[in-house]
Amino acid sequence: MDSGDDLQLAFDTSDLAAELALAHFEAGVSATLKADGTPVTEADRAVERLLREALSEARPEDAFLGEELGQLGESDRVWILDPIDGTGFFSRGDPNWRIHIALQVQGTTEVALVTSPALRRCWWATRGGGSFESSWPREESKTRRLQVSTTSTLADAVLDALDNESRARLPPSAARAPASPLPLVELVRGEIDAFLAEGFHIWDHAPWVLLVEEAGGRFTDRTGGRASDQGGGLYSNAILHSQLLASLHYPARP
Prior knowledge:
The protein has 254 residues and is an alpha+beta fold. The chain has helices spanning 3-27, 42-58, 87-92, 164-169, 183-188, 202-214, 241-248, and strands at 32-33, 39-40, 63-66, 70-72, 77-85, 98-105, 108-116, 121-126, 130-135, 143-145, 158-161, 175-176, 194-198, 218-221, 232-236.
């Protein structure tokens, strides 16, 4: 299957899901807590059902792994879905939520799409094809290729992390970025130099690992690998990556 065809399918499916999610968002929803203590709304489940139905109609042999509805099927091709990343934002009426779609083929992410309907933006990447940002709905004239920064010294770097405890572990010589709801967007735009994101699940990280790598950056998980299912890790502009890994005492892999 051609990655361009898969990307187009991701676009078409995400657009349908975005319209449904936006309707729920504008109407207002309340969140309840799941067994793991994270919030969920009726919109999360409805959007994931739509994503699965549309993708499975086009790719009936593919498997799925989603935040709300779990795993379905077995295949070398797995669609990884987060129907509403940022449910807390969503339920509070804050526009900084996103729909995540990633396609893994034989364990490697080949297609990534992040859509932010309420912000009217989207970001996508294909392996070997680069990372891009555009308006949503997409317009060719409002599309740009993404590139991470070229900062080469920690003294000049601007870093961010998921929480205050993680921020305290970053090299003291580097500046701290102001808190942002979209730090990985800032990284692929070249506005910050690294983001430490230890935590969360494969559906939170899978699209962003590819987006960062295709924008020229690097990602290392907490085991020293590049997997999106190891509870997050370090994203950076690549030039600073080795210095940051050493500072964080991440395990080195040959």
